[in-house]
Amino acid sequence: MPEIKxxxxxxxxxxxxxxxxxxxxxxxxxxxxxxxxxGLLHHATMERALAYRFSLKLASGEMSEQILREIADEAxxxxxxxxxxxxxxxxxxxxxxxxxHRFLQPVLFFKxxxxxxxxxxxxWLWQTGRRDLAYFVQMRVSEVYGVDIHPAARVGxxxxxxxxxxxxxxxxxxxxxxxxxxHSVTLGGTGKEDGDRHPKIGNGVLIGAGAKVLGNITIGxxxxxxxxxxxxQDVPPCKTVAGVPARVVGEAGxxxxxxxxxxxxxxxx
Length: 269
Known about the structure:
Shape: globular
Helix content: 40-55%
Distance between the termini: 55 Å
């Protein structure tokens, strides 16, 4: 087999690592060569690879790959923060998900990561006033990935959504940096009220599987929400809450719950 030389900038360590892993993956499993070349090695930058995946996965009879690719390329070219957030999200998944052993896995295989990157393009469309296109992206992300994030919601860097099945994040929700959540999490409202009606999640928060956080409430930084909890009131920073309705049951147990991913509530918290 001839040597595979990825097209990659030497000043982008995340993309360099992804391309190096891609070369190794093809050597280990040549049958993956076509997919990996088209999805990764064919592209000069991570942004171009993400735009390709966005268009490939979200295309339908209503919107072609070509149009979606043009939209995503424009978004990444116009807003460098999109690419930086994508790199932070890759590192977050790699560091926190024990099933992730390579940087390329989220980009190629993990629907949580891919859904978040597609949401980020939709959010860019929303911010630039292209609301109907943003709604279309939201619809397709929900249909394809089972993740429904309103394009007006604000989501920080370093987000990790593990398994990412049945995630709902409402229009006025705010999610801070370095947040981790598991499947079936809802950041929703409490009724038909309009205006600012969704949760504000601080930095470093861990939200367990099936948790529902409802209303315009604040979840303090570096707190933990136990699996299956229903949170209806503000949560102070660095606390653990559990139950229906949720109440404070102790301290968060560590400085960075979203990084440690420790979801066990013991008497020591």
